[in-house]
Amino acid sequence: MFKKVFGGLNKRKVKVFFLFLVCSFLAWFLSNLSEPYESRANFSLNYKNLPDTLLLGNNAINSIEAKLRASGFKFLYYNFVNKRVDVDLSEVMNESGNFTLTEDVLKKQMERQLSQSISLIDLDRDKLVVDLYQVASKEVPIKANLDLQFEQNYILQGEPLVTPNMVLVKGPKSEIDTLNVIYTSKIELANVSSDFSKDVLLVFPKNLSNSIFSINRTNVSGKVAKFSEKVFDVQIRVLNLPEGYQINTFPNSVSVLCKATIEQLKSITEKDFEVIADYKQLSGSNNNALFLEVTRKPEKVHGVRLLENKVNFVLEQK
């Protein structure tokens, strides 16, 4: 019977009817979505601007429910996106050991982040209690862990440069007080003959489980230069002679081998060195020779070495 009824209908008219029905529904749906509504929505919390003396605990509240007034379009949008608001902890208050943000402060922070077409009516709490605990903080120097194998006649010019060279650590005072230096992971380079630069991770002690670090990597760089050797003839100066005596050393000068870059050697002279012999150090078992020591040398040279470490002498009364 139904087949006969529907069969007698004009198929074209049926299609037009359903098209108008769909269009009417869409018009009604869109009209309703454009109307303002009041409803509740959940927001995930992203804590930021943590004070230096505080750390966020593991039990921090991670969401909040808010009552909003907005169009249906906005609420439909909120059903398909992750709603997140930043919580500025620089405004946190300490109330007898509990760290809180008042409802007014929290509302103002949220309103600044919501669209102008959305009104924040109410929150599900009159204050937000944040799980924070007090910590100490200090800056710790970073030291490069280098294993460099240079090509012949090449050296590292000066100290390696670490950038940044400090790390801020925050944690319980009993933990961070034991920390004096942070090392980088090991840098191994072979056949080095030119400048280098490496980004490396930092190695943190395992016993600092409750501490956090401001960075986890740094850059280590160094300047590499070709060096040469030069021998300088330096006069020997004797200290602490007995009163009324003078001394003659044989010889009266000593050869000093200096390793430095070629440019450095051009400006170095014998006057940049001082070699002394201390008469007070004369031992009874070896009283015919004085031991020598370099007490002054040019800065930033690769190495200085005496080619002879002792000298004979004759002590004469004045």
From TrEMBL:
It holds the Pfam family YbbR. This is YbbR-like domain-containing protein.
